[in-house]
Design goal:
Layout: H1 12-18, H2 22-29, H3 33-52, E1 72-73, H4 76-98, H5 101-124, E2 126-128, E3 140-145, E4 154-163, E5 176-180, E6 183-188, E7 198-204, E8 211-212, E9 224-225, E10 245-247
Helix pairs in contact: 2-4, 3-4, 4-5
Length: 256
């Protein structure tokens, strides 16, 4: 699971899965869906701040101080809240442009669904990471000639993810690609976060088939040179750390 602060909680694909007409409506009405996703993210962030600071009692487990949005892990209820709110914004914009009752109906539908997802988040609670490790930036990946062993000539995808003191792994970076000819590849991470204690490297022949290559986390100041044998089974590149605990949140009266 990714952290809320790793980027947009939902994607265009998430929205299209909820509403198959989305792209047609967005094109017809010249609506920037990516902008609506960003606006919904800002609104949900404010809502989370209200939920997280709405109680004065300390965390019931005594594990951490009052959590902030930077510690929130994206759970299914949170993703749905964001998706439905973004869709509501799209159809509100479409209705305001055309005053089309069909758009008004879809706007109201997604408003109700966003409220439902919000209520589910309140019922379940917010997922919180004790030591949040952010999504890694795309690493620098280069072909290296003259290594003791070379990879088969091909194009490879490589990514990496930071680990914290407990060995928990953050979300993987967007993959970089490199083509090898009688060479291997070298992966160099960039911009380690302050709490990073190591990193894991994932390499494969495609973006969906990258497997972990290292046994134990690599030091933050170290690079990785891929041996000639590529691991093709085991742990795949992931979406980030799971929450350490679920924080109960108060039910806050929402207007609208």
């Amino acid at each position: 699971m990714a952290l809320f602060t790793d980027g947009l909680v939902s994607s265009m694909d998430d929205l299209s899965a909820q509403d198959s007409q989305l792209l047609d409506v967005a094109n017809a009405e010249s609506i920037d869906v990516t902008q609506k996703l960003a606006l919904a993210q800002e609104e949900v962030a404010l809502g989370l701040e209200v939920l997280l600071t709405g109680t004065s009692y300390p965390d019931q487990f005594g594990l951490s101080p009052q959590p902030s949005v930077s510690r929130v892990v994206v759970t299914p209820a949170l993703r749905l809240w964001h998706s439905y709110r973004a869709l509501e914004m799209v159809y509100a914009d479409a209705y305001n442009s055309q005053l089309n009752d069909r758009y008004a109906g879809k706007r109201d539908q997604f408003h109700s669904m966003a409220s439902w997802a919000y209520d589910k988040l309140v019922q379940i609670g917010a997922g919180v990471a004790l030591d949040p490790i952010p999504r890694a930036a795309m690493p620098t990946v280069t072909a290296v000639v003259g290594a003791p062993t070379a990879l088969p000539d091909a194009t490879y995808y490589a990514t990496m993810a930071w680990t914290n003191q407990a060995g928990e792994e953050g979300a993987s970076a967007l993959p970089a690609t490199v083509s090898t000819v009688a060479s291997t590849l070298l992966v160099q991470p960039v911009d380690p976060p302050n709490n990073a204690k190591g990193w894991n490297v994932y390499v494969g022949g495609g973006p969906d088939s990258m497997f972990r290559q290292n046994g134990t986390p690599i030091g933050t100041a170290q690079t990785w040179t891929q041996p000639g044998t590529l691991a093709t089974t085991g742990r795949r590149a992931g979406q980030g750390q799971a929450p350490n605990y679920i924080k109960p949140v108060p039910r806050v009266l929402r207007r609208g």
